[in-house]
Structure formats: structure tokens, C-alpha cells
Write a structure and sequence with these properties.
Distance between the termini: 37 Å
Number of strands: 11
Radius of gyration: 21 Å
Number of helices: 19
Largest sheet: 8 strands, parallel, barrel
Shape: globular
CATH superfamily of the largest domain: Aldolase class I
Strand content: 5-15%
Helix content: 40-55%
Strand order of the largest sheet: 4-5-6-7-8-9-10-11
CATH class of the largest domain: Alpha Beta
């Protein structure tokens, strides 16, 4: 630790757990790069944890600390703000470079309404525990000179149905541990995905949704009890598992009526609901590796958003599984009032499929898939389908190789990603939302004394 403190001393002073920025240019030019490398690939857990802690403190000192989007979403629910759809981007491979491009594009277009997220399952297969992910995202914001608090979100903090049936308490304790560690790492936005517990064999909608809203309410109360003072963590629920049948107005009402009965008036509720509108996480690969066309139900989004806002004062509905949709569809989401859209697989595809991606490395990755993911292959899968569906699982095993790609390869990938992010920010109408975020979200500094480096258990169920 003393060696690290000495190495950064020309740019950052660290004394008695307090940081002071001495040279912001030096910090951005070199120091932050060195810190984030040690935060991810340090020789010991102590070194990693200390560098993650330093990055968090530096970000907070620069008013880039993790923030909750809660107040902005409340304003949207009240009708004070509207007209855009917040992109929530899952950062998987080449995490630092990808995050830098996101903030670069956001600065270019004055974007403030922006979330960076990772799902419970992604933490496992990309080998990015919560505190590492938070450090990487914040380091990227520091590097690019981003000027707003950063919204980091736990996507699909999902209850595993099989494990829940075997031992409900054990599975819920596991989710609560994940939540606690993630909040400690700066995840102040969390999507509670208990939709796996919906039981459509039950005779009434209330009975079908009961386990879903009951556990969501329990987790809501747990989070409100442990959240840092001065921070209202933004929470979302989910009424239908992504990839199943489209959600209905009646299901939304059944969920919300049951949920609200279990939450006292003194406790802040969820602000959003994820619904199913015809998409699937990652898209559906065809035999030749191309993606099947999807017919997305924009009417469902519009109708359910209207009910969510008018009847329950929610900010609105969330669209999952959207990154591989046709480009011409994206400007429709703000038009129908979509609150938030989750984007992941397309950016991963752009890394693997870039023309400069090293073919020898790609061959190694695919060979690894055939050896280590063969149990996931369905009898009817072609090689292309199998690779498309499983190559995300190699991101953790080859994390170092992806971080250390040649500079010309990184540049090619980054340029393509920046064009894509700027396109999406424009179509989702979040351009020039910087001042809106400044109005509703104020930087909050909290005491940070330690971070927990812990690899979360991986399980299937999320993109």
C-alpha cells in the first residue's frame, strides 16, 4: 500500500483515508491507468482492494462518485421530465476500454441520463465482482473527464428458481449477500428480478404473481434498511421473465397491488417495472449464425407505461434484450414512453466480430468454448449457433487477453463502439440530458473505509 501511495503521490495525496487531487492532468494521463490495472490484475487481493478503494475515493473527490438515479425517476413519474429513454449498458469484455468509449460518447453529446450495469450472472462469467466493476467504470469516467455522478446498476439480481425451490432461505440469503456487497461497492441502482417465481399454473393473476411480489417486497425492505445514509437506492421490479409471453396490464396491476400492500407508506417503493414485449436476451441465433427478426410490441410498452405512471406513479417500464434489434426501431422507444432500455450483446459482438480482432485469439476462445461449454450445446445447434450463444462465457477466462489487445485493434473496436453509442444516445433522445441530471441528482460523499473483493456465484437466467 505504501508503495502504491508513493507512486501516485505526484498526482494524488492519500493520508488518513482521505484523498486530495494534486495534479488532475497527470492523474488522467497515467496514474488512473496504472491504478485500474492493479485494481483488476493486482498480484494480491489486498493490492486489488486497495486500488479499488483509491479509485472510488478519487472519483468521489471529483464528484463522479456512484449515484442513485432515484430522484430523476421520481420526477419522470410525476411528469416533470419526459421525452427520452435511459440506456442501461452492460459492460462485459474489454471493460475499461468499453467504458471509456461510453463516457467519451456521452461527453460528445452532453448525455447525463445513462446507466452502466452488470447482471449477477455476468459477474460470474466475465469474472467481474461488484467492487472491481465499480472501480473500472469509475476509472473510465475519471480518465475521460466525465463531469457527472455515475449511475452503476445491478441488472437482473435474479432469484434462481431451482435453488429457491430446494432451499428458499439459502437462495434469498445469497441474493441479500450479493446486494450488500454491491451496495458497498457503489451499486446504488438495483433491479430485483424475482420474475422467475411467477407461477402461471395458479388460477388467478394474484396467485401467479404472489411469490414474485412478496420476495420483491422483502428485498425492498432489506435494501432500505442497509442503504447508506442520504442515498435512496433506485429499485426496479419485473413482472415477466424476459423471453416468455408478452406482459399484460392485468399482470402489472396484480404485481403492484400485492407489492404495495406489503410495503408501508414510510418505505420508498420501486420506481420501474421490466416487462416482456417480444424480445429475448442476446437475440435468437439462426443456423447460419445470423439473428432472427423480432416483432416487438410497442403497444404493450405504451399501454403498460401509462398504467404504471397514472395508477402507481412509477417512472415507467423497462425494455430488456434490445441491443440486437434493427437500428430503425430505436427512436420508437422514447415515442412510446419507454423509461429504460437494456443493451448488452451487440457490443460484445462488435468486439469479437471486429475485422482486426486477432484470429489466433478467436480460435483459442472458440476451442475453449467447445471444451468447457459443451454441456450447454443443444443437439440441433450448429457450430455458429453454439458459438454465438456461449462466447460470452469466455470473457472471464480471456479477460487479460482482451484487456491487452494490440493498440490498433483496440482503436478499431473503440471507433466502432463510439459510433454505435452515439447513434443509440441520439435515437433514444438522451442527447443534452446533462443539465436535467444536474438539476435532480446531486453528488453525495459517503465515508468509504473498505471494499469487499468477492466473486459472486454464477448461474443461468440472464443475458
Amino acid at each position: 500500500m505504501e508503495e502504491i501511495i508513493q507512486k501516485i503521490s505526484n498526482a494524488v495525496e492519500y493520508k488518513d483515508e482521505v484523498v486530495k487531487i494534486k495534479n488532475i492532468n497527470l492523474l488522467r494521463e497515467k496514474i488512473i491507468d496504472d491504478l485500474v490495472i492493479k485494481a483488476v490484475f493486482g498480484k494480491t487481493d489486498e493490492e486489488k482492494s486497495f486500488c479499488r478503494l483509491l479509485i472510488r475515493k478519487i472519483a468521489q473527490e471529483l464528484n463522479l462518485g456512484p449515484a442513485s438515479i432515484y430522484d430523476l425517476y421520481v420526477a419522470i413519474g410525476k411528469g416533470e421530465v419526459n421525452g427520452f429513454t435511459v440506456p442501461a449498458i452492460n459492460v462485459r469484455g474489454m471493460a475499461y476500454d468499453t467504458a471509456k468509449v461510453i463516457f467519451r460518447a456521452a461527453k460528445e453529446l452532453n448525455v447525463g441520463a445513462l446507466i452502466l450495469e452488470i447482471a449477477r450472472s455476468e459477474m460470474g462469467y466475465t469474472n467481474q465482482p461488484a467492487d472491481e466493476y465499480s472501480a473500472v467504470i469509475l476509472a473510465a469516467a475519471i480518465k475521460e473527464g466525465y463531469e457527472l455522478p455515475v449511475f452503476i446498476q445491478g441488472d437482473h439480481f435474479q432469484v434462481n428458481l431451482k435453488k429457491y425451490k430446494e432451499n428458499p432461505k439459502k437462495e434469498l440469503d445469497s441474493i441479500k449477500e450479493l446486494i450488500k456487497n454491491s451496495i458497498n461497492a457503489g451499486f446504488y441502482n438495483i433491479d430485483l428480478d424475482t420474475s422467475t417465481l411467477v407461477d402461471e399454473s395458479k388460477p388467478t393473476l394474484d396467485e401467479q404473481q404472489k411469490e414474485n411480489y412478496t420476495i420483491a417486497a422483502e428485498l425492498t425492505k432489506y435494501i432500505r434498511n442497509i442503504q447508506p445514509q442520504g442515498i435512496e437506492i433506485n429499485l426496479g421490479g419485473e413482472i415477466g421473465e424476459i423471453g416468455t409471453k408478452n406482459s399484460t396490464q392485468e399482470e402489472l396491476i396484480a404485481y403492484m397491488e400485492g407489492y404495495k400492500k406489503l410495503i408501508s407508506s414510510s418505505i420508498k417503493c420501486i420506481t420501474k417495472l421490466a416487462i416482456q414485449t417480444g424480445t429475448t436476451h442476446g437475440g435468437v441465433p439462426l443456423a447460419d449464425g445470423t439473428i432472427a427478426k423480432v416483432k416487438i410490441d410497442f403497444d404493450t410498452i405504451e399501454k403498460l407505461t401509462e398504467v404504471a405512471r397514472k395508477k402507481y406513479n412509477l417512472a415507467g417500464c423497462v425494455q430488456h434484450g434490445a441491443s440486437t434489434l434493427p437500428a430503425e426501431l430505436f427512436d420508437k422507444f422514447p415515442k412510446v414512453g419507454t423509461l429504460e432500455i437494456h443493451l448488452a450483446t451487440e457490443f460484445q459482438n462488435m468486439i469479437f466480430d471486429n475485422s482486426k480482432f486477432p484470429q489466433e485469439l478467436k480460435k483459442q476462445i472458440y476451442n475453449w468454448l467447445f471444451e468447457n461449454c459443451k454441456d450447454e450445446r443443444k443437439p440441433q445447434d450448429t457450430d455458429q449457433q453454439f458459438i454465438y450463444k456461449t462466447r460470452k462465457k469466455a470473457l472471464g477466462a480471456f479477460k487479460k487477453e482482451l484487456w491487452n489487445l494490440p493498440s490498433d485493434v483496440k482503436e478499431s473496436i473503440s471507433n466502432e463502439l463510439q459510433k454505435k453509442f452515439e447513434f443509440l444516445f441520439d435515437k433514444l433522445n438522451v442527447r443534452d440530458t446533462k443539465d436535467i441530471v444536474k438539476k435532480y441528482i446531486k453528488p453525495i460523499k459517503i465515508k468509504i473505509s473498505s471494499l469487499i473483493a468477492k466473486k459472486e456465484e454464477q448461474f443461468e437466467g440472464s443475458d
